[in-house]
From TrEMBL:
Name of the molecule in the record: CDHR5 protein
MF terms (GO), sorted A to Z: beta-catenin binding; cadherin binding; calcium ion binding
Claim: Repeat is one of the keywords in the record: yes
InterPro entries: Cadherin (IPR039808), Cadherin-like_dom (IPR002126), Cadherin-like_sf (IPR015919)
Domain Cadherin: 4-69, 85-189
Protein location: Membrane
Keyword terms, alphabetized: Calcium, Membrane, Repeat
One GO CC term on file: adherens junction
Gene Ontology process terms (BP): adherens junction organization; calcium-dependent cell-cell adhesion via plasma membrane cell adhesion molecules; cell migration; cell morphogenesis; cell-cell adhesion mediated by cadherin; cell-cell junction assembly; homophilic cell adhesion via plasma membrane adhesion molecules
């Protein structure tokens, strides 16, 4: 069942079972074949006796896929591919973080998609780490700081995930780290309440005007003590 075109036999009296095309472990990992035997050729007009034998085949997964960084989205037409998004995070200028950095959409994490094998994953930074500011834990993927950064900057780190027993199976993810001014204060609105006026029948994206001043568009603005010039 569901294995048409995969298995065949060759030989008449001592047949061998062989594969006609590669198996996809994600589609099925075991199958049962029914082998027919007859004591006369198919074209014979003589009485023919037949027998059957059931052959159960267990399929083992092979190490065919490179690590996947999570979260990722699998392609509908190819279950062997999973597309991940870049990671991103922020650190403050002139501040040393002693804890693993918080990243979006989550911490650096990769798996071996050959799930019955599940090779251990090893992480390393292979690019973008100017002045060795950052380190990645080889076992956990946690990203930490080695030193402070004294000016605004952006690091585009290339983090590689390899299988511990097969470094040729690897994937690389981009991690964008922005160095920003520390934010101590929340933004605040200049006014507690804003009042505006709109007119009936206006098309979409028309301005809302200040109440009592129909010639001036209503503007809502916020300030932040951390960024007085913005």
């Amino acid at each position: 069942q569901d294995t048409d075109g995969y298995f065949a036999i060759r030989g008449v009296n001592n047949p061998e079972i062989y594969l006609q095309k590669a198996l996809d472990y994600d589609k099925f990992n075991s199958t049962t074949l029914l082998l027919y035997a007859r004591d006369r050729p198919v074209t014979s007009t003589d009485p023919t006796n037949t027998g059957t034998a059931t052959i159960t085949i267990t399929i083992q997964q092979s190490d065919t896929r490179a690590p996947w960084f999570l979260p990722c989205t699998r392609l509908h037409d190819d279950s062997s591919v999973c597309i991940s998004s870049p990671y991103s995070g922020r650190v403050n200028i002139s501040e040393m973080s002693t804890e693993p950095l918080l990243l979006e959409p989550g911490p650096i994490y990769a798996i071996d998609p050959d799930y019955t094998i599940r090779e251990r994953i090893v992480y390393s930074i292979v690019g973008g780490n100017t002045d060795e500011v950052f380190s990645v834990d080889a076992d956990t993927g946690n990203l930490t700081m080695n030193k402070i950064v004294t000016s605004p900057d952006t690091f585009l780190l290339q983090v590689m995930a390899t299988q511990a027993n097969n470094i040729r199976k690897y994937s690389v993810a981009t991690v964008e780290i922005k160095v920003i001014n520390k934010s101590n204060f929340p933004p605040y609105f200049e006014n507690g309440v804003y009042s505006g006026t709109v007119f009936v029948g206006l098309p979409q994206k028309s301005f809302v005007y200040q109440a009592g001043d129909p010639s001036t568009p209503l503007v809502i603005t916020a300030m932040d003590q951390d960024f007085p010039d913005v």
